[in-house]
Amino acid sequence: MLKFLTAGESHGKCLTAILEGFPSGIEVSSGHINTDLERRQGGYGRGGRMKIEKDRVEITAGVRHGKTLASPISMFIENKDWVNWLDIMSPDESGEGAAVTRPRPGHADLAGGLKYNHKDLRNILERSSARETAARVAVGAVSKRLLHSFGINVYSWVSGIGEVFWDGSGRYSGFDEIFAEAEVSDVRCPDKKASEKMKKAIDVAKKNGDSIGGVFEVVVTGVPPGLGSHVQWDRKLDGRLAQALMSIQAIKGVEAGIGFAAGSMPGSKTHDEIYYTSAKVSSGNGFWPRHPRFYRKTNNAGGIEGGMSNGEPIVLRAVMKPIPTLYKPLRSVDIITKKPFAASVERSDTCAVPAAAIVAEAAVAFTLADVFLEKTGGDSAVEIERNYKGYLKQLAEF
After folding, report:
1. What residues does each domain of the chain span?
2. What is the rounded average pLDDT of the residues 82-92?
3. For 90, what's the count of Cα atoms within 13 Å in the CB-facing half-sphere?
4. Per-chain mean pLDDT for the chain
5. In angstroms, what is the C-alpha Rg of the chain?
6. 319: β partners
7. How confident is residue 345, by pLDDT bands cut at 50, 70 and 90?
8. Distance between CA atoms of 137 and 56, rounded to whole angstroms?
9. Of 218, 50, 230, nearest in space to 134 by CA
10. Would the pLDDT of 24 be above 70?
11. Backbone angles phi, psi at 333, to 5 degrees
């Protein structure tokens, strides 16, 4: 139903995103998108690029008077640093710039150079840069507007940086409160003590000229059962979400629910038992209730069973490796001379886990918006709401 493309290089003139298949009548503004772009640029441990750029989106097509038209939505994000790279990144033949010939371990540099036969690795590193995720955050912000219109909310927070982990403890009334606490943390961890320890771990890595990775979580509430499908491999919801998260730069592992912990647990303690209540349940927002008639007291499955949402909150977790660009560079080999050198250094962050969590929100939001439209159909917000309420009535009468 939905698809998007992004274009642009890290130090090029701009980033562009085009979102196609989006229905009409959904409220969207540049302010909604800019909020998430600003969140992406925050976080303790970010590098000098964040001081240069102040991302702002310009919606150039697909939205009129604050509502989507159903035509392709085009978004433009200027790279303010472009003025300092005019010669190096010029699309014209007159451009100049020393070739990058020393691939950095852990980057796309060497593999991309081999694949596309580029002897100047800047042709690879500019596009493979995580700068591209700004465009994806813009797409995700629009997708969130669709989901939010139907009572579906996407949250994220950081649960670990380096060897410091938050165990989930604390007195919280729900995901809203956990998210609110994460939003005021420099590292986007809900726990204040863990946040301070994480910041110290980042400081140590920076002092040593090193980088540090971590773990973040994405939780989605208000999701009805039946998104995704068991009938074909490429329609399974957990598979599609895992692919979306793994497509984010530096993500090396994804799990749903208890994830890898299930491998060390017996089945009797792994699977979520099913309960039923005959009481009439109201959602409070006109859509899917938080406690449906069929429900589970645990959520080890992370809201997904058999490749489909089961009505419980979707809980995902991903690990981000340490950023491979180091101020204490690793060894590499020059692709022209074949001689060993210390890998070249591009401006970089010490830790980008908090930012990666925002990008993950966007990736998850787009994927869920896609499967939601597959289930509800409709070319406009009015038609989707009519179809969705019909499905919810079917669920209530099951």
Report:
1. 3-396
2. 91
3. 10
4. 93
5. 22
6. 215, 253
7. low
8. 12
9. 50
10. yes
11. -130, 130
Q: For residue 78, give the H/E element and its range.
A: strand 73-78
Output helix, strand, coil percentages for the chain, rounded to the nearest 5: 35, 20, 45
Please check the confidence at residue 55 and state whether its pLDDT lies above 60. yes
Three-class DSSP category at 136 = helix
Phi-psi region at 65: left, alpha or beta (left = phi > 0; alpha = psi -120 to 50): left
Residue 291, pLDDT above cutoff 70: no
Cα 68–chain centre separation: 22
Token representation of residue 13: 């003139």
What pLDDT, on a 0 to 100 scale, did the predictor assign at position 283?
63
Average pLDDT of the segment spanning 39-47 = 88
pLDDT band at 343 (very low <50, low <70, confident <90, very high): low
pLDDT given for residue 1 in this prediction:
83
Residue 218, beta-bridge partner list: 156, 316
d(CA 367, CA 145): 13
Measure the CA–CA gap between 43 and 40, rounded to whole angstroms.
8
Q: Is 123 helix (H, G, I), strand (E, B) or coil?
A: helix
Identify the CATH homologous superfamily for domain 3-396: Chorismate synthase AroC (3.60.150.10)
Place of tokens 């100047």: 120
Task: Round to whole Å and give the CA distance between 54 and 33.
Answer: 13
At 87, list the tokens: 């010669």
Give the model's confidence band at 23: pLDDT under 50 very low, under 70 low, under 90 confident, else very high: very high
In single-letter form, the type of residue at position 392 comes to L
Residue 309 near residue 230 (C-beta atoms within 8 A) = no
* Distance between CA atoms of residues 227 and 237, nearest Å: 7
Neighbours of 157 (CB within 10 A): 23
Per-residue confidence (pLDDT) for residue 50, from 0 to 100: 55
